[in-house]
Amino acid sequence: MKKEVKYFDLIKQYKSIKGDIDKNIHETLLSSNYILGPKVEKFETNFAKFCDSKYAIGVNSGTSALHLALLACGIGKGDEVITVSMTFIATAMAISYTGARPIFVDIERSSKTIDPRLIEGKINSKTKAIVPVHLYGQCANLTEIKKIAKKHKLFLIEDAAQAHGAKINGRVAGSIGDVAAFSFYPGKNLGAYGEAGIVTTNNKKISEHIKKLRDWGQSKKYFHDFMSFNYRMDGIQGAILDVKLKKLTKWIKKRRLIANKYQKELSKHDIETSFEEKEMYHTYHVFSVFTQKRDSLKKYLNKNGIQTSFHYPMPVHKQKPYIKKKVQYLPVTELIAQTQISLPIYPEMSMGDVQKVIKEIINWKIHN
Ligand SMILES: *Cc1c(COP(=O)(O)O)cnc(C)c1O
Predict the structure, then answer these.
(1) Do 168 and 176 contact (CB within 8 A), yes or no?
(2) Which of 85, 183, 304, 342 is a plausible cystine mate for 161, CB 3.0–4.6 Å?
(3) 62: CA distance to ligand 1 center in Å?
C-alpha cells in the first residue's frame, strides 16, 4: 500500500508532547478550574509576552476574539469596517455580528494580503476600522496600513488567526494594531484540543472592557454592567495551550525549513509558490502553489496519496450571506481563489515526505 502524506497530523504532534499535556490536563481536572482559572491566566501572561503585548484575554474561539475586539473599539450598527474577501468567513461574520458592514478590498498580487493602495478609496464618514488579515501566516503590510488608520482616525484590528509569531520589521503580530485576535482552532499553528482564541492589546481600557464582555459584563459576581457574552476560555484548553506555546518557536522554524525546501526545489521548475516578502517573518500556516491547473494538480497528488487543500476556493463577497445583486469584482482575490492550492506542511512532517511531495509535483509539471 502506498504511504499517505497527510495535510497535517495532529496525532503525531500530540504523541510528541503527550507527557506534559496529560500532566497539565490532569492537574486541571483535579483542581476543578474548568473555566478560566490559574492555567488560563498563566497562558494569558505567557501569550502576551510572546506577542510583545501588555494584555491577553483568553476566549472560546478566534471568532469570539474578533467579535469582542470589534465591540471593544465601539464598532456597531451603521458602521463600516474595511477588510478583505480572501479570508476565512469568520472575519466578515464577526464584523456582521456587531451590526456593522464589512467593506471588501482587493489583495496584493505578491503578498496576498490587503492592498494598502486600495484602502483610502473605500473610506467615508461611516468607516470606523480596518481589519487586515495576516493570511497564510504572513503579516499584512501594517506599516502602510497603520499610517492610513492614523490619518483617518480609524481603529486597526489585526486578524492574526493564522499568524502567531509572524513579524514585520521585527515587530510581532498582535502588538501593532490597537487590538488583535488569534484563533487556536486545532489546525492553526498553535492549536487547542477544541475551540479557543485570544485577544491581545496594549490598551488597558480595551483589555478591561474585553474581560467583562467575555464574562457576562461582570465586575462582581452576579452584577452585570452591560449586554455581553459567555465567551470564556476553558481551563483545559488554557492548560494545553500553555504547554504547546513553549514549542511554538521551534515549530515555526520547522515550518520555515519545509517552506524553504519547497521554494528552492519548485522554483527550479518555474512553479509559483508562497514566499516571504521583504521585512516579513512568515510562519507558513499555509504553503501555497499557484497554478491555472490547480484542480489537475490536486487530482494528481491525491491519486499519489498526497493530501492538499484550498485556501479559499470561494471568496467571502461571493458567499451566499454576502453576495449582492451587482457582484463586486475583486480581480486578484478571484485569481487566487481559482489558482491556489495548499501543500502539506506541519512541524512533524518528515523531510522524506517533503521530498515525495516535491517529486510528484515535478512529475505532474513535466506532463502539464
Ligand atoms: C481560523 C480563522 C478565524 C476564526 O477562528 P476560529 O477559532 O475558528 O473561530 C478567523 N479568521 C481567520 C483568518 C482564520 O483563519
Answers:
(1) yes
(2) 183
(3) 5
pLDDT tens digits for range 286-318: 999 999 999 999 999 999 999 999 999 999 999
Ligand 1 atom nearest 87 alpha carbon: 13
Is residue 94 in contact with ligand 1, taking CB distance under 6 Å? no
Nearest to 84 by CA among 61, 118, 110: 118
Distances 50 to 55, 133, 191 between C-alpha atoms, Å: 11, 19, 15
Does 161 contact ligand 1 (Cβ within 6 A)? yes
Tens of pLDDT, residues 128-143: 999 999 999 999 999 9
Confirm if 200 and 175 have CB atoms less than 8 A apart: yes
Cα–Cα distance between 95 and 90 in angstroms, integer? 8
pLDDT tens profile 140-162 = 999 999 999 999 999 999 999 99
Distance 296 CA to ligand 1 centre (A): 28
What pTM does this model have? 0.98
Residue 3: its pLDDT value, please?
78
